[in-house]
Design brief:
With 424 residues, the protein is mainly β. 0% of the residues lie in helices and 58% in strands.
């Protein structure tokens, strides 16, 4: 008879190595030298402690290293220089997953990864309490996210999230609805793609409430796959010191169709994000390689070496009133793509994106306005190497148009690189 404390142990993980180089990511200007190249790596280790089918503890740990670089204080991306020693292990997830007795409900309590509507609403790791149940063909998930709680006495800059997700799946059809509420208390809404928190007195907004109503529809057959995503903002905030208030009223629509004709896959899609579209803190949707972060994880703002971190801000330093990156705003794109499974171990993918702004933005020093950002081409070559190890070669080129920056100089951007990935 096994002792009462006996548990099953399950483990796995992921190792990723990348090398990359880019030009004009920072300023879209050939006259300025901002050529960058570097190597980085990431290790993720997953350890599950399983008591039974009704109870388990899930843990995930991560170490990031930028080759040749040791950050001050040996923090994130530390340990890559000579000597290499660093305090560089991050807790990604630690949560308990258990069945609630006499109910069809399971609970996940702790720091965990969450994704809502393909990241257009939320995709991040967070301290959360999540409950889910399956009532075939309907699945229900709801929960609370403690986004920010820096001061347990004063809730001025706290951020609390609540969400409800309903999914229906029957045959090739899948439908989902999401209601997401982010209560930012009196935290500052710094720009239209996040709710930002700061120190006491740093805000000019009060009673900051953002509601997202999201909807998705997908249909998949052997030869065709299609989906449609829609998000609408509601809520608003009071402007401190005045009787005025402001509403959140942006919206986003995304659609895509894939046609399978072995050994080829043809794709047509795109999205429109209005100029007022607002994201909750915790959003993250990757799309193209240069404009949307992609495989190499760096968009047209590049690396912020002063803080030793990847800058996900979106858009070059002197961009107009729009955002790229993983939180596009005042932006629309059309994507046309083709993938060829050349061999069992080799796949080649080519994607084209047209990039434009939903509303015109300032395009030069004289105040001229334009709405064309440019054209982006992405090339991927995926090769299976050995025993689950995969190599991806990446090439991306953005042909700049007038609206890309507020300068009359809008030069092209390129990015090349390679990734080795082993999931074990």
């Amino acid at each position: 008879v096994a002792p009462s404390f006996a548990v099953e142990f399950k483990y796995g993980g992921m190792y990723r190595w990348r090398i990359q180089a880019n030009e004009n990511m920072q300023d879209a200007n050939d006259d300025e030298d901002d050529t960058a190249n570097w190597i980085d790596q990431r290790l993720r280790m997953y350890f599950d402690f399983i008591g039974s089918e009704n109870l388990k503890l899930v843990t995930k740990w991560e170490a990031d290293t930028l080759w040749g670089y040791e950050s001050p204080g040996a923090g994130r991306h530390g340990g890559g220089d000579l000597g290499a020693d660093a305090v560089n292990l991050e807790m990604k997830n630690v949560y308990i997953d258990f069945a609630i007795p006499n109910t069809p409900v399971r609970a996940q309590m702790g720091v965990q990864g969450l994704s809502l509507l393909s990241g257009w609403i939320f995709e991040d790791d967070a301290s959360a309490a999540v409950f889910n149940t399956s009532l075939d063909p309907i699945k229900i998930r709801f929960g609370y996210i403690a986004a920010v709680n820096q001061d347990v006495i004063n809730d001025l800059n706290d951020m609390d999230d609540f969400f409800l997700e309903l999914k229906y799946a029957e045959g090739p059809l899948s439908v989902a609805g999401v209601l997401f509420y982010q209560y930012g208390h009196d935290s500052d809404y710094s720009y239209p793609n996040s709710i930002k928190y700061g120190g006491e007195g740093s805000t000019n907004k009060e009673d900051n409430k953002l509601f997202d109503l999201g909807f998705s529809l997908s249909y998949k057959m052997d030869w065709l796959a299609a989906y449609l995503n829609f998000v609408k903002n509601f809520g608003g905030y009071d402007i401190a010191g005045t009787d005025d208030d402001e509403d959140y009223k942006g919206w986003l629509v995304e659609g895509n169709i894939d046609y399978f004709m072995a050994p080829f896959t043809l794709s047509l899609g795109g999205f429109v994000a209005s100029d007022k579209f607002a994201y909750p803190a915790g959003r993250s949707h990757y799309w193209s390689e240069i404009a949307g972060l992609g495989t190499l994880d760096v968009n047209v703002k590049g690396l912020d070496w002063s803080t030793n971190s990847y800058d996900m801000g979106g858009g070059v330093n002197n961009r107009g009133n729009y955002d790229m990156g993983d939180a596009p705003r005042n932006l629309w794109t059309i994507k046309v793509g083709a993938a060829w499974q050349a061999l069992d171990t080799t796949k080649i993918t080519l994607n084209y994106y047209y990039l434009g702004t939903y509303k015109k933005v300032v395009a030069d020093e004289k105040g001229k306005k334009d709405d064309s950002l440019g054209h982006e081409l992405n090339l991927y070559i995926d090769q299976k190497v050995v025993d689950g190890l995969e190599l991806r070669l990446v090439g991306a080129y953005l042909i700049a148009d007038d609206a890309l920056t507020k300068s009359s100089t809008d030069d092209n951007i390129y990015e090349v690189g390679a990734q080795l990935l082993w999931k074990f």
